[in-house]
Structure to design on (286 residues):
């Protein structure tokens, strides 16, 4: 069984919406203005479509339920295998060492978690987390098949409401998952809370190409070829059209950096890969 987040229950702050050990509202300035609207009144984007905030998580869940069985194959086909190099770069930038505690959000089938498991060793811990049960189950089975056991825990959790204590992890990563989160700022705030002082966040995500010619080619590939590959391999063209649209709606490099700084992270920087098609953002909690 995949372990659920229930054992880590906290009171949800009425000010910022984050789980805290105390019920008092958060007074931090970075949360101001976030509680004036109810979730029923708010909308967000699902690709290019505007949807009620409460609907997005369910619709994203349907996408990943649909593609879970072919997830690894599609990653290889979509990126021509380059996603492995992107993830390797993220691992190198993480600075994870033996004995540390790592939270891998949107872990998917576990490419990052598998590497972290080897780096932290028997004295460390990797928490493999995903909001989608189908992905989490597939990732857990893959980790067991590859012999990654003993220092891995599996938690189904929403990145916006992390069920972990304050100052808990040396490193938090979220790979190709932040763009699917309903309230990205809320998730970044939650990540900041669970990081230990000196800890770091790494966001590996599709971003904005740095040149116009590359951007045009990327648009042609994303909207013409990618959905057809999805239809051929998974019989699901719509999910891969959503993928292309969600990438275009994701904040660009400078905007995401500013959001990380708003959450309280310092020394924030980003590294463009493949001409900005993908970027790795890194920030520290001090």
């Amino acid at each position: 069984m995949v372990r659920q987040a229930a054992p880590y229950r906290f009171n949800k702050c009425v000010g910022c919406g984050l789980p805290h050990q105390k019920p008092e509202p958060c007074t931090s300035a970075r949360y101001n203005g976030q509680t004036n609207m109810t979730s029923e009144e708010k909308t967000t984007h699902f690709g290019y479509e505007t949807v009620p905030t409460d609907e997005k998580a369910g619709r994203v869940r349907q996408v990943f339920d649909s593609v879970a069985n072919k997830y690894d194959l599609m990653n290889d086909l979509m990126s021509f295998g380059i996603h492995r190099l992107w993830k390797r770069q993220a691992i190198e930038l993480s600075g994870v060492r033996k004995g540390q505690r790592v939270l891998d959000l949107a872990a998917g089938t576990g490419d990052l978690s598998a590497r972290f498991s080897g780096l932290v060793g028997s004295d460390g811990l990797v928490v493999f987390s995903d909001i989608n049960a189908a992905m989490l189950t597939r990732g857990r089975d893959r980790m067991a098949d590859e012999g990654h056991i003993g220092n891995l825990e599996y938690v189904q959790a929403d990145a916006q409401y992390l069920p972990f204590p304050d100052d808990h992890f040396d490193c938090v990563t979220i790979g190709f998952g932040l763009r699917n989160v309903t309230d990205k700022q809320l998730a970044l705030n939650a990540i900041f809370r669970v990081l230990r002082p000196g800890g770091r966040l790494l966001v590996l995500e599709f971003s904005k190409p740095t040149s116009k010619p590359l951007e045009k080619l990327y648009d042609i590939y994303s909207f013409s070829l990618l959905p057809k590959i999805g239809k051929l391999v998974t019989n699901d063209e719509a999910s891969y059209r959503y993928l292309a649209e969600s990438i275009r709606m994701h904040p660009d490099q400078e905007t995401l950096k500013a959001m990380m700084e708003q959450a309280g992270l310092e020394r924030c920087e980003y590294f463009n890969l493949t001409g900005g098609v993908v970027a790795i953002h890194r920030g520290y909690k001090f």
The radius of gyration is 18 Å. Residues 6-211+239-284 form a domain with the Rossmann fold fold (CATH 3.40.50.150).
